[in-house]
Amino acid sequence: MKIIASTGREDVAIVYIMELDSGHVVECVEALAPPIPREQKWVLLVSTMFGCPIGCQMCDAGGFYQGKPTKEEIYSQIDFLVHRHFPDGYIPVRQFKIQFARMGEPALNMAVLDVLDELPHRYQAPGLLPSISTVAPAGRELFFERLLAIKREKYSQGHFQFQFSLHTTDLAARDQIIPVKKWSFERMAGYGERFYAPGDRKITLNFALAQGMPLDPQVLLSYFDPSIFLVKITPLNPTYRAVENRLASFVDPFQDSHAELVEALNTAGYDVIVSIGELEENFIGSNCGQFLRTHLAAKEPIEAGYTYQLREY
Question: What's the predicted TM-score (pTM) here?
């Protein structure tokens, strides 16, 4: 494994482009949440596929697919990021979050489960919090059943974060923005009810909300119990795919444009997280949906994203 390029800031986020021994190239990220110090919260994002076959309309990491990393190839990303700061493998961070979310749909790679199974024994990390975000692709029942078993055995009592990415409650629009066969809301809700146990974190229903993509609290209520599920609303980050598909963010980081929607969701009984994050990450290219190699291949830059220079090694 070798690092071939990186960009970003130590006090915000750094994206690494890594060439594996197999010759495949992946990206991984380490990020902070200023002004919170690393000792309190540290987030890693690792790739679970070489490209992604899903092709979500707002994600620059889709559009090509070259296979799946092995368990050790996923660990090579985590090990590199960990050993930069904690070479002995002891990670004294209150919340050490590993998101399997840089590139690829994690439910399409069974090796992700092998990583999760071993992770608590690989490092001394009392604050370990793995995070899986999925569009719930159809035909992955074996993945989700084993994930449930691993979570029950090793990550109970709030030590796991599970997220379904819905992006809209309009079924036709959902099929447009996530163009793959996937679980219905009813199927997702049923699995979530089995996944959740007393003491767990609520399951997140994620909406990277674009203008014109409805989020109807009454539709959610007909499937998702607010005592088990919460709603997270994020901006649509600046990506080439979003521009190409004429998607504009519903959430404006500089205006309270989402207040009415949040109130309606609260009235329906949902806890709501509006996750805007550090805007500098848009310029670094470390946010969800961004992908440096798409930027490097682009002929024209986009506004509000990917402005940092790449450091090559």
Answer: 0.95
